[in-house]
Sequence to fold (1519 residues):
Amino acid sequence: MKKILSFILAVVAAISMSSCSNTDQPESSSQLIVGSVSALNADMMDGWTNSAPNKSIKALLNGYETVSYTREGFFEVNKTAVKEFSDEENDDGSKTFTITLQPGLTFSDGSPITAKDYVFNILLYSSPEFGALEADNFSGIDYVGFEEFHSGETRTFSGIRLLGEDTFSITVKAENFPYYFELSYAGVSPLPTSVIAPGVEISDDGEGATLSEEFTVDLFRETILDSETGYRYYPKVNAGPYCLEEYDPATKQASLVLNPNFLGNYEGQKPSIEKLIIKSVTDATMMDELAAASVGLLTQVSGTAIDRGLDLAEEGKVEYATYLRAGYGRIAFAANHGPTQSAAVRQAIAYCLDRDEFARQYSGGHARVVDGYYGLSQREYRENREALESELIHYIYDLDKARELLVADGWTKNASGGEFQEGVDTLRYKEENGQLVPLIIKWANTANNPVSDLINTMLPGEMAKVGMELQATSMEMGKLLSELQQAEGQNYHMFNLGTGFGSISAVWYYYNPDLKNFGGSYNSNFLADEELYQLALEMKATEPGDTEAWDAKWLQFQKRWNQLLPDIPLYSDDYHDFFTPRLQNYTPDGLWTWENAILYAELQ
Amino acid sequence: MRGRFGSLRKAIFGSNASPPLEETVETPLRTILRNFQRNIAAMAGLGIFLLILLSCFILPVFFPLDTSYQDVTQQNVPPGFNMLRLPTEMEKEPVQISAGSVFSVGINGDGKVFIWGQASQKLRQIPGNLRRAVQVSAGLDHVLALDDTGRLFTWGNSRFSLGSIPPELLGAEIRQVLAGNQVSLVLTSDGRLTFWGNENLMTLRLQEVQGRIQKAALSSSACLALLEDGTVASLTTLETPVSAIPESIQGKVADIAVTDKAAAAVTVEGRVVTWGSNVQDVPEALQGKAVSIEAGRSHFTALASDGTVFSWGSNNFGQSDVPSSLEGEKVTAVYAGSYQNYAVTESGKVKTWGLKGYLMGTDGYGRDIFLRLISGGRLTLTIGAIAVIISTFIGILVGGFSGYYGGKVDMVLMRFSEIVGSIPFLPLAMILSAIVGNRVSELGRISMIMVILGVLSWPGLSRLVRAQILAEREKEFVTAARAVGVREQTILFRHIIPNVITVIIVSATLDFAACLLTESSLSFLGFGVVEPSPTWGNMLTGSQSSTVIGTYWWRWVFPALALSLATISINLVGDGLRDAIDPKSSER
Amino acid sequence: MGRYLARRLLYMIFVFFVVSILLFGIYKLVPGDPARLMLDSTLATTDPERYEAMYEAARERLGLNDPIPIQYLKWIGNMLTGNFGYSSVYRMDVIDMVAAPMKNTILLNLAALVLVFCITIPLGIAAAVRKNSLFDHTIQVGTIVGYSLPAFLIALVLIFLLAVKVPAFPISGVTTPGFQGNAFQKALDVLYHMCLPLLVLALSSAGGLTRYVRAAMIDALRMDCIRTARAKGLREKVVIYTHAFRNALIPMVTILTGWFVGVFGGSVVIETIFLWNGIGKVLVDSLRQQDFSVVLAMQMFYVVLTLAGNLLMDLGYCLADPRVKLN
Fold:
């Protein structure tokens, strides 16, 4: 027995010693390990899955996009890639963007980038052949001629023109205009045609870009889907600041190395960190990994984990950058059925929740209560903060107000149809079409989530005090989303989840009162309010570049939203990125995430 | 010896046969009891298990758990009862006391600053150059102090720029310092307020009142100012429950205090007026003679002109129970904050009441772990028992029949157990949760999940029993019994099962332990009992971070201890029972 | 024996089909819409038409528009012809997707199996032989601690002690990121990362197993044959290790076969905390994301393993104890 034990101990000791000596060596001077809480997978090409770390990797692999989203929150033509850019309105209301490339752009292998490689991107991602690879092939849906091309009717995409070695044009359908963010339609990045589709020719005889016969599914099964060499898993040639060196499915780690031929992002910025490794971490131990230097950068840390990071920062072990979140945590209501159809009930629930205490409890002070459809990092919020604070209703914990709202809304009956009596009856009812409707709110949440836990602690008791009942059900995120979108019927009235804003916040979709077509994935509140929708449409139709007009309409939209209260906005975080002190000049922001900021950073 | 021959004898003569003469007159049950009682380890196990059982089923009656309770200021408080324990030096000539969240600071007659209660390392580092303090204020996790030269000090939490005193305060003459929930307030003698700290939690609008402020009052969500003309103003930019100040008191206010959701003002006539949400009636005896008022997180304490003290508001920690020992004493000053009260009597003694501390500390939401532990144990033990009883019962039945009859019965039953064994537990649990939804209570849902676990987890035991019986039934005594024509059932249940009881008891005790753990694994995966109802499993899942493991040890050590004590003791009982039932085992 | 085997195999096929119908039915009952989960909702929100088209395409692709019996027949047909399905979340063949995590899981579990058996069998025998001694009680109570605590807690405490306080082992992962070295060094690196998960596995399972071995041994030591062996004057070691141990084998065989299936099973808890990319986590994640092709394929794989294991177990009984007759 003793022998076995001592043998095991000896082996363990030997392993730990030999490995300790090994671990010191690979931490080369210019290698940064980025930790990611969500898991990495093998997809390195657009069209299939899109987990957060893979999104970041893809952003680092792609470059020379024609339109960039800037740190300041605007769309802008990328001067590094585009020499000339013009737009022209056609007679039928459609709009044509003509783009001429800068000379000297090359892929990572040194081969030149031509207009063909940009056109190929749109064609590939719209083609039926790409769809046959189980991939999404709708990227050109806003361009003229998409339907014919996408269905396979023709191999010519009439809205896309290849006008020469360095020039191409994109014609966008008339129905999309006017549009404040119209420039986003002209955004496209190059794909290496000769690698993904060797032998395929793209020609243009004046009717649009046309693919040659070599463009086939069989070809792509080899060049894209091959598990060893396919572009989906191993893009060897790319245009972005970094190249994929390796992805190891056994360890779920990816390593990226500098692209020597990269000329810079829209500001001409080139990265200097030689190697980036992306690996998974868990919430439970990620700060320890950072302290032990087995991870060099952790992004978007929120909640109470921040304090542990700040402790490490005080010990000098890590540095941090803080910025506001482009999104917010919320309680979402279904506004098309049950008691939550009424804005008064939604407001009454908001008055039952002590949101200020909630945010303090959830975040340890690293989040702020918001009152509208915005995140703290949004430019609109930062520039209109005072107006928002004075004009929006700040729903505070106030049971009397909640009671008043319910009474005014007709929730004055008890179970037997008599008058609801404070202290005697426990649940309010309302008479609708001769029937008594109980004030029961069914709430779908996800388990093991501090937000659900806190709401479940803080809300049901208070709601009971004013005659409401909250029935909670825990479920998987997938199930919750499908309930939110009412894919399986109208079962729940209330949900809690987080929302992130992208570079475009398309409120004209999210609050479109055409519930038949928009309810669910877009209008997840199923809120059909004409006034709100008109305000959103006005926002959309703002003249591009007229920031002032946009902001004014945005504010009107927020005011209406705040009264309707389709969501109870809970908090928007102060995100913290923690990193090794060797990392310098790293300044991320809410929408300017780490993959953008890392281009400006250096390792000491 | 007796065991083996006993079985055989019973097998031959049937169980109704009269006992042989040489046997002592003792029923088998008594034998078992006697054997069990002799086993010290088993008795100790039984004792511990009963103790746990009783604590979990009786104590919650006396210490009920309010599941809707949470308190951000009481997060992660270590075990201990020192929150009201003043340092002895502090007892003489106390000048001022300020109660923070879970600690208090005070100044004694020498101007020396003391800190007591659950103060962190950072809080205990009182600046060395702070010589003679004249005013202190304790916040959530930081302290502000003023010395006799007018210098301002701050220590404790330095985040949210709390640690950097605004430059405009250098050289200013300071009237009042206030430390709040991650915010600091300083009032200068020209009536101007300076505010700094975590702007996520509070922002103030000060332009209209600057220069006229007499006194400020601060709580975690509200900030009020008493102006020189005796009016009260709410200073926060966002609305708070106390923003609506009653018109009737404006111009006549002498003192103000604010709790988290309510405010109180003492008028020049000595009356107390309260407003806000959840306000409670002011004691009638106080009206007309109130002098000053202080507020904790949810209670008020006021001093009357005759030296008596009144506390009212919520009383969850006894913070509104003025101790009877204060009767007849003349109180010169009271200090209240958080859940603590300090009254200084004329004789210079300090009387305290309110929250002393927590037996097992608090968790990340500021809830008392002891309360959650005893309430959680009841759930954990119940649902563990459900599953193990069901699975053991089915397992013995199926395994027994299968092993004994063999042949077709065995084939069918074993195929059945294979099918059941292949049904995965998690998807079934998911379906169930979704279908049952919110139609049953949380306890009902989790019980159903455990029933499913029990119904699905017997095949392992049944195979074990069957295997044992396969070996057992070929043994000589069974052959003998069969030869004399004893009924099959009797052979099976009277003679074979007792011989495989060892395996069953070991298996059942292990299974009970396993079910207690299954509950925690379910919590880990998000299928267990959800917050705020506590179980040992979800308490442990809630401690799932290295910060908790390393720093807030009390959050996992106590539930882990309870879980292992329960498991170990039930196993000891199982072992003891096995030895007692099976007298052979004491032989060697 | 041959006839018995043939009949067993026949039954196995029957059970396999019953279970496959049951499992398929169960997964179809799980509420939720896998097609929706397949799509990137942020992408969809900017463009409703495109999203709707993609959603319909996804439903078609997953065959969700067919009636359930047809879906079953299609699925089982594919299964039997070696097409284990297509992961709706990862959008690749299930086989390609599970290969790497399966390798990791088997590696870890085999190591754990060997370690645990090396510890528990000698420990259990020693405890049984010295029954009721101080040594026995220490072992009894000591091993309970291991299984009376949830594995995640043991894992976190060990991480805290052995990776954070005393940084002897890595906190998580399968290899050191960016590790360069020859094959041997790489193997050592993996072994090094395996130490803590192994320790947790051993601690949490050794307790139960030791007790089983001990119980079986105690029963075996009481047998008449042992008495006879002792009476014959055989050396105690021979009595214990040849005579008694053989009789204690039956319960051990049962446990061992259970473990044999478990080797391919993986543990979500350990894999989650140590970020050990294994099959347990893949399975639970797939379940969460309603990626049922993966779950079903894996589950059927386990069914086959269990059935084979049970057969092996019965054959094992025969080998361990010739008195056991199967037919």
Remarks:
- Residues 28-65+367-587 of chain B form a domain with the MetI-like fold fold (CATH 1.10.3720.10).
- Residues 223 and 346 of chain B are 32 Å apart (CA to CA).
- The longest helix of chain B spans residues 488-525.
